[in-house]
Amino acid sequence: xxxxxTIAGKDLRQHLRNTTMLLFALVLPLGLAFxxxxxxxxAGSGFHARFVVADEDHGPSASVFIDGTLVAVAKASTVDxxxxxxxxxxxxxxxxxxxxxxxxxxxxxxxxxAAGRTATLKVIGGAQSEIASYMAREVAQAYAADVRSGxxxxxxxxxxxxxxxxxxxxxxxxxxxxxxxTLRTEVTAYRKELGTSTYYAAGSAVFFLxxxxxxxxNGILLERGNHTMTRLVAAPVPRPAILTGKLLSGITIGLxxxxxxxxxxxxxxxxxxxxxxxxxxxxxxxxxxxxGLMALIxxxxxxxxxxxxxMSGVTVLLGIFGGSFTPKAHLGPLAxxxxxxxxxxxxxxxxxxxxxGLRGVVTPVLVLxxxxxxxxxxxxLRIGKVLSP
Length: 389
Prior knowledge:
Blueprint: H1 2-16, H2 19-39, E1 49-55, H3 60-76, E2 79-84, H4 87-96, E3 101-105, H5 109-115, E4 122-125, H6 130-159, H7 167-176, H8 187-190, H9 196-225, H10 228-234, H11 239-268, H12 276-299, H13 304-321, H14 342-356, H15 362-381, H16 383-387
């Protein structure tokens, strides 16, 4: 092992002086992550809706909608609520683009709801504010469902022969009753998705990590070509120690690069990678898998040019299908190919880490380590081809 560490130390010093290696390891992934993160910012983080409400009724039902429903929506989300006097003013503001949508409560609305008659709550949506308009419509429909439940309670009570002296009071009590069946959003379900900054930082990092592995393994091919490897093989050093030293330097560079990228993207881009232990496990297994795969390709390369071309082609294809820059949903029927790539398992591990904690990385880490064991094992079987010209 001393010989392996000596060889690794020598190669590591060479790699650190290689500007091309540093370019692929740090500059390009950080640059692309910053570019994509700036252009494609989280859709949810920049969403802000402006609603206006025109109350022409001034009755109890209108007050419940404004002071109850709309106030609750404003508190729970990034929504501003403004008040105007007339429906015409509300429509004018929507048409001019000053607000995204408007609620209009016509006169007689409270009387109609109390009497069980059909009541109309108008929603005016802006043509350029599709998401906000849809949100306004859903808010109105949610309130309408509450009103209908109260009206239904009154109708059922009367149908049973019971006299209803105060229909409005009965409807109000019905609407205030907590339903036995409720819908609850599971926090981990919607958080099981990486933010834009994190996704593109991770995607760029894993994509260029394979180029880093390619450059480190390519050093073996270069030494074979200039016969430096021949002299090293002739030395009293076991061949497995030579191969271990050569690959160990690449693994070290990969770990350093990924660590710096995680820290830098977190500080400068606001990326949230998740639990440090889970991230560390994913990074180590990914670096081993990428180095092993590049080493296996090098073991079947007859020349440096042949090996470089194959490693470059495989790296690009894995990045495309692995989702480094395109979410798997955009690949359509070819999305399943992503699970044949280390990239997809690494990104899936980060997503599962965000939703399930450390247990979410178990399967991705095992898959990546399995790939590393398989590729390193096959490379070791072909060690004569790897080290001999």
